[in-house]
Amino acid sequence: MDQNQKKWKRHYILRTLILSGFVLLLAEMIITGRLSQYLAPRLHMLNYVTLGILIILTIASIRQVIIGQSDYDCDCDAHKIPRSPWTSLIVYGLFCLPLAMGIFMPDKTLGSAMAENLGVNLLSNDVRKLAQVNATVPEMESQVDVQPNDGERIAEDVRKQAEPSNTSEEPVKTVPLEEAQIRQLFAESDFGDFYTDIAVFLYKQPVIKLDDKVFLDGLTTMELYAKEFAGKEIETMGFVYHQSDFSEEQFVVARFSVSCCTADASVFGILVEDKQAKNYPIDSWVKVRGKLELRNADGYDMLVLKATQVEPVDAPKDPYVYYSFEAPQGSE
After folding, report:
1. DSSP secondary structure string, 227-291?
2. How does residue 239 score in pLDDT terms, banded at 50, 70 and 90?
3. Using alpha carbons only, what angle is made at residue 71 by residues 67 and 72, rounded to the nearest 5 degrees?
4. Cβ(157)–Cβ(185) under 8 Å?
5. For the chain, give me the number of helices (H) and strands (E)?
6. Residues 6+ apart with CB under 8 A from 93
7. Which of the four, 85, 197, 222, 240, has the lowest number of CB atoms within 10 Å?
8. What would the pLDDT profile of 20-78 be if each residue is shown by its tens digit?
9. So what's the pLDDT on residue 84?
10. DSSP string, 162-204
11. In this structure, is the dihedral angle defined by the CA atoms of residues 273, 278, 283 and 288, taken in order, positive or negative?
């Protein structure tokens, strides 16, 4: 084997090692679930396709190492290897750098530091306006002084049906809510069937479970129907976010939304009021349960969660939430 063939073989061995490294890295991310730290689930299929292509290229590179140098006659002059050591260093370094970063750099979940830079999207308003709401203002003073419309009267009738009477000595059996009546309550706002379906699905629950599947769509729905959801009890989970202009009894239970990858992440959450708010560390994960209260600031109606129960929990395996674009099952 002459010097030129040895040089050629070294290059293909190096290429094979780099390709094998990417194959192993992507395979490990898929198997362990680390892929969700970087890509939204709807893009995972592209990663699977990429992995398949890399496996084919790796096999082709191994074949070149085994069978030796081949002669190509395509007149394109594109099959030469880098001639100088500096060119080789630059070319292969461009591939080795991201590979090394993927292997040696630890995964880091987005948290409060990024949320402060991006700003938090909250129910009906942004975090700076919501921070101005005085937590000590009585609820009656914070309500908007308007005459009840048909939707509000229906909501009041629904709540009265759901509440047992205090005048009877024997417990009164709760009357099941008619779905058609609830649907009429939300359909009058004309926000479309999609949000009407979600609103009905959420409203029918005695305690609204704002889990990962409906977190974003649920927040959007409650923003659209703020008055209708005022007084409802909800339970949700997220990381704790504090801001300097919050009162000592306020924090946000927040989640990051990822559309494609973490580079386009946005922050969504609910402003929570709790006397122990200052005791919850930033970026710690909590499960919060409480009742939604309607507030008004700068002419905006907004929902604030008055916490009745806050408990620490472990961060989920996939800390991000995504839009589903489908009404939850059971909303029909």
Report:
1. HHHTT-EEEEEEEEE--TTS-TTEEEEEEEE-SSBGGG-EEEEEEEE-TTGGGSPTT-EEEEEEE
2. very high
3. 120
4. no
5. 11, 9
6. none
7. 85
8. 999 999 999 999 888 888 888 888 999 999 999 999 999 999 988 887 655 554 555 55
9. 73
10. HSPPSS-SSPPPPPPPPHHHHHHHHHTT---HHHHHHHHHHHT
11. negative
Q: Is 136 a residue whose pLDDT tops 50? A: no
Tokens describing residue 306: 């008055």
d(CA 153, CA 159): 10
Q: Are 322 and 216 in contact (CB under 8 A)?
A: yes
What sign has the CA pseudo-torsion 175, 176, 179, 180?
negative
> CA 332 to CA 196: how far, in whole Å?
10
* pTM of full prediction above 0.70: no
Note whether 242 and 251 are within 8 A (CB).
yes
Quote the CA–CA distance of 156 and 173 in Å, as a whole number. Answer: 18
Alpha helices by DSSP H, listed for 119-178, are 127-130, 139-142, 150-162
The residue ranges of DSSP E strands in 22-101, in sequence order, are none
Smallest CA-to-CA distance from 52 within 30, 78, 79 is with 30
Q: For residues 157 and 178, give the distance between their C-alpha atoms in angstroms, rounded to a whole number.
A: 11
Spatial contact of 281 and 241, defined as CB atoms under 8 Å apart = no
Structural domains in the chain plus CATH codes = 3-104 (no CATH), 112-321 (2.40.50.140)
